[in-house]
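hiii, so i know i said id send this last week but things got crazy w the move. better late than never?? heres the sequnce for the chain we talked about at the cafe, plus the structure i predicted for it. fair warning i was half asleep when i ran it
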Amino acid sequence: MAGTKRHSKSVSSDESPSKRGRSGGAVLEEMDGNAERTPSRQRDEEQHDGAEADAPVSSPLRALNQPGKPAECGVIKKVYVENFMCHPKLTVDLNQNINFIHGQNGSGKSAILAAIQICLGAGARRTNRARNLKELVRKETSSGAAPNSAKIRVTVLNDGSDAFKSEVYGKEITVERVISLTGGFNGYKLLDEKGTEKSRDKRELDEMLDALNIQVDNPVAVLDQEEAKKFLMGKPQDKYKFFLKASELERVNRVYSNTAETLGELREAHDKVVQSLETGVRRVENLKEKYQEHCKLQDLEYKVQDCEEKYAWAIWHEINAKHEQMTANVEAYQKKLAAKQEELRLTEEAANGTTDERDEKTKHIRDLSAEAGEQADKKKKLQAQLKEILAPLKARERELQSIEKREKQTKRALAKEREQLKKLRDEILRNAGSHESEQAQKTEMLQKSETELSELKEKVDGLKQSLSDAARASEDTESRLLAAKNEFKHAKGQLNQVQRTFENLQSSGTDLMARFGGRVAKIHRMVVDAQRRGKFQGPVEGPIGAYLKINPGKEMYKDVVETALGVQILDRFVVTNDRDRKILNELRRKEGCGNDCGIYQVKQGARYNIPGPPVDGIETVGTVLSISNDLVFNCLVDQAKIEKNGLGKSKEESQEKLLTRDASGRLRVRGKISQVHFLPRGDTWSVRGGQLSVMSNDRKPRGLLSKDMGDAIAAAKDEVEHCHAAVSNAETKVDKLEGEHIQKRREWNTARRARKANDDEMDALIERIDQIRTEMENDAPDATADTSVQEGEVQQLEEELEKLARQRETFQKDHDQRQPELDTLRSEIDDATTRTEKAIEELQAAETEMTQYVETQTQNADALQKKRDRIHKYEQKLQDQEEECAEISEEASTRLAMARKLHHFLHVFENNRESCAKGDSVEFERNNIDPTEEQLENIQPPPMDKGVKQYETRLSRIKKRFEEEKARAVTFDETKEEAYQAYRQAQDEMKEKTDSCASLGEKKDALEKDLKSRRKRWKQFRAYLKQTTAIKFSELLGLNYYSGDLEFDDQTESLDLKVSKGGTQSQTKDVKALSGGERSYTTMCLLLAMGETLETPFRILDEFDVFLDPQVRKKTIQSLIHVAKRMEHRQFIFITPQDLTGIKPDPRLKIFKLRPPERHSQQAGGLTQQTL
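okay and structure toks below
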């Protein structure tokens, strides 16, 4: 154990249980980790300290030395010395398991051990070879030249999971120690596996030794000659001390004893500090008052300098913030300019496209139009042919249906007659010659009539339903016909109104008011006349449409704006008070105005300021219209919300630019837009409650917003044509419904006649049944039966049925012959219809695409020029901002240099204050201080919590106070430096006493508690090590058929060895009774057992066999080799002056023999190299 620190580190690693096994030091550290206990538990432990102090720690021994384990990190691979002790140059390549080094006395065996100790951190005295390191440097050679330094290198393995900083040093670490006599480098170097220097820090070496568990100061790990002699020849007390020293229990106990002495000193110091506190407090207060009188003036001067510095920094911060903002603006403008330039480039590329595209689109439209016309003509011709063929076929189909119906009726009648004839004949045969035959026939007729009457009654419900359905269909057709007639009447009235408007426009010539209707023009003339005569109190404007024009470049939105405003707004008038409203209403009543010529009343005032569109590419009604009158403008803002009605080129583009989503994912529209009208027809979309809705517009605009009368007349003419088409469609619909109504009436009459025929037939059957019953009652029984009538009826029905069958076959044959021709015509008509619809659909798509293409080209040209103008403005603005930014940057640099100089001066000033406070005499002037550029660059701007104005006011106030104090300065009996020294000394003394009083008590109590706990754990740790060492000692003796035990006496501090041969207790005897060889072997087993808890990567034994006779020495060496080979992951180095002839080297055992010393015969010529 090399101290608790090393064992703590070795146990804390779970990566390598072989090396970091459960050593005694680990047990002690685990017990230290449980130092925090509850007060009750601590009292229980204190009560049982005496009983439990020596109780061994129960910890199962684990197999730490399994066969086949690889060599541990820290195993020595090579030792190199130069000018060290007796060696000029020596290299030793060690085996990773067993190494024997032998040679004559003076050959330098122990020098190798000393080199390992010195290179791995031990002091010179630990080697028992010198008092200091310089004495280990090789002395003069035979040539008379003494070396100036010695060099030692020890290379250790650094491979595996326990490696130390393998990413830095690799698989090997070389420690180099230089001992210089002339003042050169004298210290350690750590080299990696390639020999590259990585560190000269002694702490790095200590960390490496601690990580690899290398303990060269521990006698169990490195047993030199002196320690070996003491151990082999020592008394039981010496062995006990050796045990304590090897396990470092002695060092820990010594630390505890020092701690107890320190604890006593703490008690005394605490008492003295408590006594001196009161006097010190009064003395500090008095000296503080004296010193404050001296410091007031200098403090004010320092405050002045400090405020000047902060004022300078505040100015710099203000200018720098402005510069940063300006720089950010410049960068933003640069990014925007680059984006706009790229956008301009793309627009120019689009504008420079092929000129043939429009021609191709036009040609494509012509082709599609021609194809649609051809297919339509073809369809008409085919339909005419089909109609010609179907005309005679339909007549024949009706005849065929009549024949089939008659055929069915004849079949039913024939079946009935045949059945009656059969029954009659059967009855005649049964009643041949009977006078009751005629009576039987009448009975049969009565039954037949009753059966037919039952069948007719069953048809009554069906006929009623057919009659009801026909009546309802007739009524439905009649109602639709009435609605179509009303629609026709309305369309005709609309046509008349539009026709009058068109005629008024044509007759009025340049009268723009006529486009709003004849009554609007008359009302306008009446308003002008009333205004001339002063009847109105305020302004009266109207109609509203007369003040509206489309802004240049936005004519494409003309019809959409009219749709968005509505016709009912454009023909209205605007007043500002109730009196004018009543007068205008009276004028409207006289003229007979209905819904037209309406009135809006608004408050008179300045023109409203409305926002523009929220994004580029979107217009509003307010931005498209040019409104010449402020009153009309405000009225449209209030009534038509012209700033909230957006206009877009298409639905997709407008939705892409305006639609967005809020935090909850619901749709919303950017800006103040409430609804959007888009080209080409003025359809509308809007968002309500987060949902998107779209409404189509079927109303054609009237062109009331045209720029001149010609446009208005053209628009009115188009509307007249549109109304003509609507009247024609309505008239066609009426004609169609009238025909359908006539057909439904015919069907109703047919159903009514069928119902009447059924009723008549039922009445006839009832009358016949009554007649038969009367005849049966009156007829005599002598009548005879005759079947000739029935036979004649059956024959007649059969002939009629054959005739009908021949007619049906003739009709069917003719129909079948014409059917292929009909199918071919219908197929050709369907194909022509499909082609026509497809051509029309493609034609509409092509026309839409052409319209969009033309609009896009126009818009691209406008957008291109706008982009160029905008980029030019951006470039000019960017240039101005860059110039302004450069000016601000120059001013910021000047202010920064000024603030840094003030900061440096304040720093010198503060140092001067401290020097004056210490009693030094320092004089300085600001002009004499000249900082270097590097000093100024290292000064970083501090953060400021106030503005320039605040610091400026504060600086003025402090300067005024400083001048006042300077004028009132008085002469003191003592200097400021003397007063400060006295006050500072008293303050330090008081602080020291106060801190001591506050901490010494806590330290004292904590130290007492901790010391008691640690002494208890130290005893437990000692018991654990004794138990572990005794078990291993017995195992090692068993290798040579010995058995033994260790007797530790902690009271007398002695260690006795009990050994027996052959495993019998009767032969147990004290070590003193053993032979010298047996005693040395037993002691060697004890030494190995102690080292088992150490777990160092290597062990070195120097002159371990000096007291062994040849026979025991041979057996001991064989046992050592056997034990070492069982621990192949550990390294053993045995140093002996005796011969090793009987040992055979193998891959795991290596023998090094040093050359005999050359006494007084070394030749001149410098260093000689020896490699083992």
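btw The radius of gyration is 64 Å. thought thatd interest u
miss u guys!!
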